[in-house]
Design brief:
The structure holds three protein chains of three kinds.
Chain A lengths: L15 H4 L2 H14 L6 H18 L3 H25 L5 E5 L2 E4 H27 L2 H12 L9 H31 L9 H32 L18 H21 L2
Helix pairs in contact in A: 2-5, 2-6, 2-9, 3-5, 3-9, 4-5, 6-7, 7-8
Chain B lengths: L2 E10 L7 E11 L4 E6 L5 H8 L7 E6 L2 E3 L8 H7 E4 L12 H11 L4 H14 L16 H13 L5 E5 L7 H18 L2 E5 L3 H7 L2 E6 L2 E6 L1 H5 L2 H6 L6 H11 L11 H8 L9
Parallel strand pairs in B: 3-8, 3-9, 6-7, 7-8
Antiparallel strand pairs in B: 1-2, 1-4, 4-5, 9-10
Helix pairs in contact in B: 3-4, 3-5, 4-5
Chain C lengths: L2 E10 L9 E9 L3 E5 L6 H8 L7 E6 L2 E2 L5 H7 E4 L12 H11 L4 H14 L15 H13 L5 E5 L7 H16 L5 E5 L3 H4 L4 E6 L2 E6 L1 H5 L2 H6 L6 H11 L11 H13 L2
Parallel strand pairs in C: 3-8, 3-9, 6-7, 7-8
Antiparallel strand pairs in C: 1-2, 1-4, 4-5, 9-10
Helix pairs in contact in C: 3-4, 3-5, 4-5, 5-6
Classes of the chains: A mainly alpha, B alpha/beta, C alpha/beta.
InterPro entries (chain C): AAA+_ATPase, ABC_transporter-like_ATP-bd, ABC_transporter-like_CS, ABC_transpr_CbiO/EcfA_su, ECF_ABC_transporter_ATP-bd, EcfA_1, P-loop_NTPase
Membrane topology (chain C): Peripheral membrane protein
Subcellular location (chain C): Cell membrane
Chain lengths: ~270, ~290, ~280
């Protein structure tokens, strides 16, 4: 099931979206997520879904891949929407039992929650699918750079983020190996009640932590031997370049915002 | 226990952009109580293959038979437990899986999971610790206080304690020094003889293949490209080289001697075989 | 010849250990020499080379690298002279891609970006990994990762390269690629001093001199030939016997002539050929 989940994955490629500057993509995605909350009537939803459809087209990946990839999360969205549905008072009451009720306002808000959630998750998926983790880290650093004024350790944070991202696949591999080893010793990770499942996690977590601490120790030694003395006076190998396409992307999202505001009042 | 692979295919993450072939139409038989080596490059499919031996992976199509147990795409996880118990797996760097507070409890972890009573599990743990040569005084210690070599023995005892009939070893000597390697390989040979185990060894050490294996399977690009006795596998040095594999040291040395005019009936694989075949081609001592 | 490393009476005990890991060690290494340190696991080899780089805080003895006595004040200067490759290929890969990892040391040294780009490319070409510059480490083999680690060091152009069991976790092919990079480097203009810890006899045989460690002590040193001919020493320190020695032993078992002294594999081959001709 989790193998199908696409949020957080990166698929290397050369689409127009892949080539955008990560700063542009981060701004674009965040901006889109904020204005997703400006949706009101069906026209605004059509606009936003049409836009995200266009964005998916630009990733060069198939629609069905997105549909299947978001599949595992759909239940989370449905669950949230149902909570909204059952606990929102106001408007015409169709049904109620104790504190639970279904009202006309409830139907409206839960529909809105459902659709906005879907927009947001799709956009976040597009961002991670088309942007390498390292590029996201670079983008975040660049966008955080103004915070240096208030002595926020931007460079250290960026290095930490990039090292952490670098070790995610290594630790996932290790977790898989340890799980296999313990399954071979008779552990059932997906069987039994809550207590049994929690107990099954101990033989996974302890070796994983011991291993990670060992790795961290090795890494610190290697970094020190390579002359890392903190973030001062370092130069940077990787620099980001802003292209015309990035400016176009930002203009497009601004136009989307304007059209959205107009449609809200129609 | 005999093992049979019958047209086994395995696909990683089918129907996604990450789809990849793991095994492609692999068929072979491992006789009961034999010693089989699996060789091939990193990424050739060796690990994927051995994970089918105890059902950690299930074939996408085809059948794996271990004794009377059949593993197919349809086998449910519930039925895998007896397979897990009968096929013990020692992964690469197995010391990385230790977790319990004492050596004794870590070794007993498998038997307890397989339904032995606490008493039985402890007795099995002590027996397994003895079999791998761990001194009794270490049993109450924390496994994390031991040396690397001792930790590895604890992990191996943890697999043996469940009394498997098949022992799968994935590069069990990686990272050990030469003496540690030799001791560990001798230990596996003894375990196999004493407990009538079927042993499957994944290795890059061609000398171990020559010294210990009854048969070898050569994997490349998810395919089984050759199966036979070590003598058959290494008989064609050109082919071995083309697969970017090495010859056993003695075979390689013998190859050099062939170019110098020595003659061998079959390519010697060990120093002993080489010396025997050099009789009649060298003067006797004291002449 | 100029001394590039001098170690004098170095001792060290880990805080929670019951005996010293390094016990009164003294030796010298000449500039441009290739020296291998051998000994069984736990004999103190890794601790010794870490001491050279100031990665452990020893209290007793002195270490002098390229004329600089190692001290808390001089440690960063000493580290500029030494490039280290460690055992585990995964745990020393800092960068998110191959090129980023090679650049890490250069970034720390504050090398300007155009110069950095040039040196990253040259170093990656030297280890034959330039075509993988944008790859992530999870998609590389162990041997490729170790070559990237070597490139990270070559880019810094240190006078000493220390390999702390850098090939012990690699398959034979990976090990061979790393060793051929080292041999190539030895023939280049830089010709760095190489200090390698290894269990592998064929790797040790490439060194000009071996230091043998046992139980925290330096128990012997000499040419590979001198060390390899001492069967007792090899066995007591947990090392393998050279193949030529094993074959000679088997020949003796068959009642055949054997050479009177230690021969390398190539020499034994010649010797057998000569004996064969006398038949």
């Amino acid at each position: 099931m989790l193998e199908q989940l696409t949020l957080g994955r990166y698929i290397p490629g050369h689409s127009w979206l892949h080539r955008l500057d990560p700063r542009a993509k981060l701004v674009l995605a965040c901006y889109f997520i904020v204005i997703a909350f400006l949706t009101t009537n069906w026209l605004t939803y059509v606009l936003m879904f049409a836009f995200i459809g266009g964005v998916i087209f630009l990733t060069g990946l198939s629609f069905s891949y997105f549909v299947r990839g978001i599949g595992p999360l759909i239940w989370l969205i449905v669950f949230t929407a149902i909570l909204q549905l059952l606990f929102t008072p106001g408007g015409h009451i169709y049904w109620h039992w104790g504190i639970l009720m279904i009202t006309s306002t409830g139907i409206q808000t839960s529909t809105a929650v459902f659709l906005r959630f879907l927009l947001i998750i799709t956009m976040a998926t597009v961002l991670t699918l088309t942007t390498a983790p390292l590029a996201i880290a670079d983008g975040v650093e660049a966008l955080l750079r103004p915070l240096r004024v208030i002595h926020f350790p931007v460079a250290q944070t960026a290095l930490m983020l990039s090292v952490a991202l670098r070790f995610v696949p290594t630790l996932l591999d290790e977790a898989q190996t340890i799980m296999n080893a313990q399954r071979a010793r008779g552990v059932e990770f997906n069987n039994g009640g809550l207590i049994k499942r929690l107990r099954a996690i101990v033989p996974l977590l302890i070796p994983l932590f011991v291993g990670a601490i060992g790795r961290a120790d090795d890494l610190a030694t290697a970094m020190e031997s390579r002359g890392y003395q903190g973030a001062t006076n370092r130069t940077r190998y990787r620099v980001l370049k802003w292209h015309n396409a990035d400016t176009i992307a930002v203009v497009v999202i601004l136009v989307l915002n304007v059209v959205l505001v107009v449609l809200r009042h129609m | 226990m005999a093992i049979t692979f019958d047209h086994v295919n395995y696909m990683y993450q089918p129907n996604s952009p990450f789809e990849a072939v793991g095994l492609s139409d692999v068929s072979f038989t491992v006789p009961s109580e034999s010693f089989t080596a699996i060789i091939g490059h990193t990424g050739s499919g060796k690990s994927t293959l051995v994970q089918h031996l105890n059902g950690l992976l299930k074939p996408t199509s085809g059948t794996v038979t271990v004794d009377d147990f059949q593993l197919t795409a349809k086998t449910t996880n519930k039925h895998l437990k007896s397979l897990h118990q009968h096929v013990g797996m020692v992964f690469q760097f197995p010391e990385n899986q230790l977790f319990d507070q004492t050596v004794e409890r870590d070794i007993a972890f498998g038997p307890l999971n397989f339904g032995f009573t606490n008493e039985e599990a402890m007795s099995l743990a002590h027996q397994a610790a003895h079999d791998v040569g761990l001194p009794d005084e270490l049993l109450k210690r924390s496994p994390f206080e031991l040396s690397g070599g001792q930790m590895r023995r604890v992990a191996i005892a943890g697999v043996l304690a469940s009394q498997p009939r098949v022992l799968v070893l994935d590069e069990p000597t990686a990272g050990l020094d030469p003496r540690g390697r030799a001791e560990m390989m001798a230990m596996f040979a003894k375990l196999k003889a004493d407990q009538h185990l079927t042993v499957i060894l994944v290795t890059h050490q061609m000398d171990d293949v020559a010294d210990y294996a009854d048969q070898a399977l050569v994997m490349a690009h998810s395919n089984l490209i050759k199966a036979g006795t070590p003598a058959e596998i290494f008989a064609d040095p050109e082919w071995v080289k083309a697969q970017q594999l090495a010859l056993p040291t003695a075979a390689n040395f013998a190859q050099h001697l062939v170019t110098r005019g020595f003659e061998f009936d079959s390519l010697p694989l060990t120093a002993e075989q080489l010396a025997i075949q050099l009789r009649g081609q060298l003067p006797k001592e004291g002449r | 010849m100029t001394k590039i490393i001098s170690v004098d009476d170095l001792s060290y005990q880990y805080p929670d250990a019951d005996r010293p890991t390094l016990n009164h060690i003294s030796f010298e290494i000449n500039a441009g020499e290739w020296v291998a340190i051998v000994g069984h696991n736990g004999s103190g080899k890794s601790t010794l080379v870490r001491a050279l780089d100031g990665l452990i805080d020893f209290k007793s003895g002195t270490v002098t690298v390229a004329g600089t006595k190692l001290s808390p004040e001089s440690v960063w200067l000493v580290r500029e002279h030494i490039g280290m490759v460690f055992q585990n290929p995964d745990n020393q890969f800092v960068g998110a891609t191959v090129a980023d990892d090679v650049a890490f040391g250069l970034e720390n040294a504050g090398v300007p970006r155009p110069e950095m780009q040039k040196r990253v490319q040259e170093a990656l070409e030297a280890v034959d990994m330039w075509q993988f510059a944008e790859r992530e480490p999870s998609r590389l083999s162990g041997g490729q990762k170790q070559r990237v680690a070597l490139a990270g060091i070559i880019a810094m152009n240190p006078s000493i390269i220390v390999l702390d069991e850098a090939t012990s976790m690699l398959d034979p092919h990976g090990r061979q690629t790393v060793l051929s990079v080292l041999q190539h480097l030895r023939r280049s203009n830089q010709a760095p001093t190489i200090l390698s810890i290894t269990h592998d006899l064929s790797e040790a045989a490439q060194a000009q001199r071996l230091l043998v460690m046992d139980n925290g002590q330096l128990i012997s040193e000499g040419t590979p030939r001198a060390i390899f001919s001492d069967e007792q020493l090899l066995e007591s320190t947990g090392l393998d016997l050279p193949f030529s020695t094993k074959l000679s032993q088997q020949l003796a078992k068959q009642g055949l002539v054997t050479p009177k002294q230690y021969l390398t594999d190539d020499e034994l081959e010649d010797w057998l050929w000569q004996s064969h001709l006398t038949m």
